[in-house]
C-alpha cells in the first residue's frame, strides 16, 4: 500500500466530495468525485475500505464515480459515511499512486501502459507514412507531409490513450478479462456476425466513395468537356464519358443500396443477439444470486439493468458501431487518396480529426458523472412511480394523491435537471465538431483553390476531392452522437457487470439429497444469526423438530420464527451453530435438493400474473389437472375457484390482485400441497382466512401431514393447538416454553396467558 500512497499531489478540494446515493441495511452506495476517471484512486480507495474490520466488500468505479460498500453488524450504517470520508481523505493526502500515472512518469507499481506504449506505435506509423511519401513524392512536399504526419501522430496518440483508459477502467470491474476492451467483452461470442457486418459496411462505404468520385467526374465532364482519368479506359468523347459515368453511377447506387440494406440488417441482428444474450445470462445469474443480495438491491434497479442497460449494449452495435466503422473506413480510404493525389492540402483536410478526437474523449470524461447521476435519478423516479402505483389503495385511503404527485414532480424535475446537464454538454460537443469540420472544408477549398490557381494542382485532381472529404466530414458530425452512445454504453456495461459480479449461491459439497428418502428430522444446534447491521435474530438457539410430526412455532412478533424457516431453506446461513436435516448440515447439501424436499408457504405468498391453475402448478409443472383440483380441495380453495368466471383458467392479475387475501393464501397452500414434499413449512399460511375455513383446512392438513414433517408458524393459537410439539419463542430468538397444547396450558406461563387472551377475544 505504501508504494501506492506516495506524496500528495494533483487533487482538488472538490475531490473530497462524497455524497450518499442509496443506503439500505448492510449495503450503501456513494458518489465519490475522487475516483471518477481515476482507476488507481478507485483501486486504492476500495483497498483502504476493505481493510476496515466489518467492511465485507468495497468496489469503486472510475467510470461512474460510484462506490459500493457492504458491511456486517460490526459497522453501524451511520458510521459508513464517516469511514468513506476518512478513506477518501487518506487517499487524497498520500496519493501519488492513486493518480493516473502521467504518460512520461508511470507511478511505482503501475504497469507502464500509457507512455511509451502509446507514442511508439503511433510515431512509427505516422513517421513511416511521411517518410514513404516524402520518398515517392519528392522533397518539395516535405513541409506538408510533416504537417500531415503530425496530424496522424496526434490522432493516434489521442485515440490510443482513450482506448487504454477505457480498458484500464474496465479492468477494475470484477469478472472482466484483463486487457480486453469493454466493447470486445460486450460482443462476446458474436464476433463472426460482427465481422460479417463490418465487411458489408466497409464494402458499402467503398461503393459510396466510388459513387462520390463518379459524380465528381460527371461534373468535370460537364465543366471541362471531359474527365481525364476516363480517357485511359477508352472513353474519349464527352458523350461516351457521360454514358459510361451514367452506367457506373447506376451500378454504384445499386451496390450502395444493397450493401447498406445487408449491412444494416447484420448490425441490427448483432445488436439484438447481444441484447438477448446479455439479458439471458444476466437474468440467469440474478436468479442464482444469494437472497441477501437480491433483497439488498432495489427491484426496480435490477429491472432497469436487465431492460434499459442491456438494451443499450445491443443498441450501440445496432447503430453507432456501424457509423463508427463507416467513418473509419472513409478516413482509411481518403487519407491515402489525398496523400497520393493532393498531399499539399491533405493536412488541412484532416487537421480537425485529432482535435475532434481529443474533444470527444475530453467530453466523455466530463459527462461520465453526469450520465451516472442522471441514470440514478431516472432509476429513483421509476422506482417511486412503480411503488406509488402499487400502493394505490394506501394512497387513496390516506388521501395523499397530491402529496404523491408532488413527490413525483420533484423527482421528475431532478431527473430533468440532470438530463438537461448531459444534453447541454452533448449538444455543445456536437456543434463544436460541426464547426471544426466546416472550417476544415473551407480551408480545403481555399488552400486547394489557391493551388489550382497557381497551377501546382490540376483542376481535374482537385474537383473530385472537394466532395469526398465532405462525405467524411458529414460523418464526423455524427461523432458527437457516437461518443454519446459510447459513453452511455460503457456506463450501462459498468452497471451490468456489477450486477453480475454479485456472488451466486454456492452449493454444499456433501453429495445429493433424495427427497424420497428424507425422513424430515430438523435440528437447530446452538444457532446464532444476525441480519446485517442488526442485533441477533436468533441467539444460541437449540431445538428439535421431530420427523413425521407437526411442530409449531408461536410467540412474540420479531422473535425469529420466520428466520428459522429461512435458515432451514438456506436463504441465509447461520453465523454460528448448525441446522441439520436428518443429521446432515444443510450447508453441506445441494440447495436445489434441499429446497425440493421442502414445501414452503411464505407469510406473504407471491402469486404470478397468470391463471389460477398456473399458479397452483408453479414448480410442479407436470402435474395433471386432476392433481391441481385435488390440491385445491385440500387447501379449501376449490369452492371459491369454482365460482370464478373461468374457474381454474381465471387470470388473477399481478400478484393475484383480483383475489382476496384469504383466497391468495389458499392458492399458495394448494401449490405447496401439490409439491408433495416430505417437509412442509407453513408461515402464517392461513392467517387471512376465517375461523371456519381454517378449521376445515386444519382437518384436511391433518391427513396430509400424516407421513411428513410439518412446521407451522402462527400467531393464532387455534391454528396450532393440535400440534405434536409447540415451541413458544420470546424476544431475542430464544425458546421460552415448549410442550403440547395441554402441557403448555398446565404450565400457566406465556402460552397459557396468550391462549386466555385469544380465547377471551373469541368469546367476546
Ligand atoms: N431481511 C431482513 N433484514 C434485516 N432484518 C430482518 C430481516 N428479516 C427479519 N429481520 C429482523 O429479524 C428479526 C426476526 O424476524 P422474523 O421475521 O424472523 O420474526 P418473526 O418471529 O417471524 O416475526 P413475525 O411474527 O412478526 O412474523 C426481527 O427483528 C426483524 O426485524
What would you note in describing this structure?
The chain folds into 4 domains: 13-98, 2-Layer Sandwich (Ribosomal Protein S8, Chain: A, domain 1), CATH 3.30.1370.70; 173-367 and 430-501, ABC transporter transmembrane region fold, CATH 1.20.1560.10; 518-597 and 681-689 and 709-764, P-loop containing nucleotide triphosphate hydrolases (Rossmann fold, 3-Layer(aba) Sandwich), CATH 3.40.50.300; 605-676, Rossmann fold. 60% of the residues lie in helices and 11% in strands. The chain contains 25 helices and 14 strands. The protein has a 6-stranded mixed sheet with strand order 10-11-12-7-13-14, sandwiched between helices. The protein has a 4-stranded antiparallel sheet with strand order 1-2-4-3. A hairpin with a 5-residue loop joins strand 3 (55-60) and strand 4. Helix 4 (142-171) packs parallel to helix 12, helix 6 (191-224) packs antiparallel against helix 15 and helix 10 (299-341) packs antiparallel against helix 15 (459-477). The longest helix is centred in the middle third of the chain and has 53 residues, at 401-453. Adenosine-5'-triphosphate (ATP) is lined by residues 25, 295, 531, 534, 537, 557-563, 603. Adenosine-5'-triphosphate binds next to helix 17.
Amino acid at each position: 500500500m505504501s508504494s501506492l500512497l506516495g506524496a500528495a499531489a494533483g487533487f482538488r478540494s472538490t475531490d473530497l466530495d462524497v455524497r450518499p446515493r442509496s443506503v439500505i441495511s448492510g449495503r450503501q452506495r456513494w458518489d465519490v468525485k475522487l475516483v471518477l476517471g481515476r482507476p488507481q484512486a478507485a483501486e486504492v480507495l476500495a483497498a483502504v475500505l476493505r481493510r476496515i474490520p466489518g467492511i465485507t466488500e468495497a468496489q469503486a468505479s472510475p467510470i461512474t464515480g460510484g462506490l459500493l460498500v457492504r458491511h456486517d453488524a460490526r459497522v453501524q450504517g451511520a458510521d459508513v459515511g464517516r469511514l468513506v470520508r476518512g478513506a477518501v481523505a487518506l487517499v487524497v493526502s498520500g496519493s501519488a499512486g492513486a493518480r493516473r500515472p502521467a504518460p512520461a512518469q508511470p507511478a511505482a507499481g503501475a504497469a507502464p501502459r500509457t507512455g511509451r506504449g502509446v507514442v511508439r506505435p503511433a510515431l512509427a506509423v505516422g513517421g513511416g507514412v511521411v517518410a514513404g511519401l516524402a520518398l515517392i513524392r519528392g522533397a518539395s512536399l516535405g513541409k506538408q507531409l510533416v504537417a500531415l504526419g503530425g496530424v496522424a501522430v496526434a490522432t493516434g496518440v489521442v485515440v490510443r490513450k482513450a482506448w487504454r483508459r477505457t480498458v484500464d477502467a474496465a479492468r477494475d470491474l470484477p469478472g472482466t478479462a484483463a486487457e480486453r476492451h469493454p466493447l470486445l467483452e460486450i460482443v462476446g461470442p458474436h464476433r463472426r456476425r460482427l465481422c460479417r457486418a463490418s465487411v458489408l459496411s466497409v464494402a458499402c462505404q467503398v461503393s459510396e466513395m466510388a459513387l462520390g468520385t463518379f459524380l465528381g467526374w460527371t461534373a468535370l465532364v460537364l465543366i471541362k468537356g471531359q474527365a481525364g482519368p476516363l480517357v485511359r479506359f477508352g472513353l474519349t468523347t464527352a458523350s461516351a464519358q457521360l454514358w459510361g459515368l451514367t452506367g457506373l453511377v447506376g451500378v454504384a447506387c445499386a451496390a450502395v443500396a444493397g450493401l447498406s440494406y445487408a449491412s444494416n440488417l447484420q448490425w441490427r441482428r448483432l445488436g439484438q443477439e447481444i441484447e438477448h444474450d446479455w439479458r439471458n445470462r444476466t437474468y440467469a445469474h440474478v436468479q442464482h444470486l444469494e437472497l441477501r443480495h437480491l433483497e439488498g438491491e432495489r427491484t426496480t434497479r435490477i429491472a432497469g439493468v436487465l431492460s434499459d442497460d442491456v438494451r443499450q449494449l445491443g443498441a450501440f452495435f445496432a447503430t453507432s458501431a456501424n457509423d463508427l466503422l463507416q467513418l473509419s473506413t472513409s478516413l482509411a480510404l481518403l487519407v491515402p487518396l489525398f496523400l497520393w493525389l493532393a498531399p499539399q492540402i491533405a493536412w488541412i483536410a484532416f487537421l480537425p480529426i485529432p482535435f475532434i478526437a481529443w474533444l470527444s474523449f475530453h467530453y466523455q470524461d466530463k459527462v461520465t458523472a453526469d450520465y451516472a447521476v442522471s441514470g440514478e435519478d431516472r432509476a429513483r423516479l421509476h422506482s417511486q412511480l412503480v411503488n406509488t402505483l402499487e400502493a394505490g389503495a394506501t394512497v387513496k385511503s390516506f388521501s395523499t394523491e397530491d402529496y404523491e404527485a408532488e413527490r413525483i414532480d420533484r423527482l421528475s424535475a431532478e431527473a430533468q435537471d440532470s438530463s438537461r446537464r448531459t444534453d447541454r454538454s452533448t449538444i455543445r460537443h456536437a456543434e463544436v465538431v460541426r464547426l471544426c469540420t466546416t472550417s476544415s472544408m473551407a480551408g480545403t477549398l481555399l488552400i486547394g483553390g489557391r493551388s489550382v490557381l497557381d497551377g501546382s494542382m490540376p483542376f481535374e485532381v482537385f474537383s473530385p476531392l472537394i466532395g469526398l472529404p465532405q462525405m467524411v466530414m458529414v460523418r464526423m458530425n455524427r461523432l458527437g452522437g457516437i461518443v454519446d452512445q459510447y459513453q452511455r454504453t460503457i456506463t450501462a456495461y459498468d452497471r451490468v457487470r456489477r450486477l453480475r459480479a454479485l456472488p451466486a449461491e454456492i452449493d454444499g459439497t456433501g453429495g445429493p439429497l433424495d427427497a424420497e428418502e428424507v425422513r424430515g428430522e430438523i435440528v437447530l444446534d446452538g444457532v446464532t444469526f444476525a441480519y446485517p447491521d442488526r442485533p441477533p435474530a436468533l441467539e444460541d438457539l437449540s431445538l428439535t423438530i421431530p420427523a413425521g410430526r407437526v411442530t409449531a412455532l408461536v410467540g412474540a412478533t420479531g422473535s425469529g420464527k420466520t428466520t428459522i424457516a429461512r435458515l432451514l431453506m438456506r436463504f441465509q446461513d447461520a453465523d454460528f451453530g448448525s441446522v441439520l436435516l436428518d443429521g446432515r448440515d444443510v450447508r453441506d447439501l445441494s440447495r436445489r435438493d434441499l429446497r425440493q424436499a421442502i414445501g414452503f408457504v411464505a407469510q406473504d405468498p407471491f402469486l404470478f400474473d397468470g391463471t389460477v391453475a398456473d399458479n397452483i402448478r408453479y414448480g410442479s409443472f407436470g402435474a395433471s389437472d386432476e392433481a391441481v383440483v385435488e390440491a385445491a380441495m385440500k387447501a379449501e380453495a376449490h369452492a371459491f375457484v369454482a365460482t370464478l368466471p373461468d374457474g381454474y383458467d381465471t387470470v388473477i392479475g399481478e400478484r393475484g390482485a383480483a383475489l382476496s387475501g384469504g383466497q391468495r393464501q389458499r392458492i399458495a397452500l394448494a401449490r405447496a400441497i401439490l409439491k408433495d414434499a416430505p417437509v412442509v413449512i407453513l408461515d402464517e399460511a392461513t392467517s387471512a382466512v376465517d375461523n371456519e375455513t381454517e378449521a376445515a383446512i386444519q382437518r384436511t392438513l391433518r391427513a396430509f401431514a400424516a407421513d411428513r414433517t410439518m412446521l407451522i408458524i402462527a400467531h393464532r393459537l387455534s391454528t396450532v393447538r393440535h400440534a405434536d410439539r409447540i415451541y413458544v419463542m420470546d424476544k431475542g430468538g430464544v425458546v421460552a416454553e415448549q410442550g403440547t397444547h395441554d402441557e403448555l396450558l398446565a404450565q400457566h406461563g406465556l402460552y397459557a396467558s396468550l391462549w386466555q387472551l385469544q380465547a377471551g377475544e373469541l368469546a367476546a
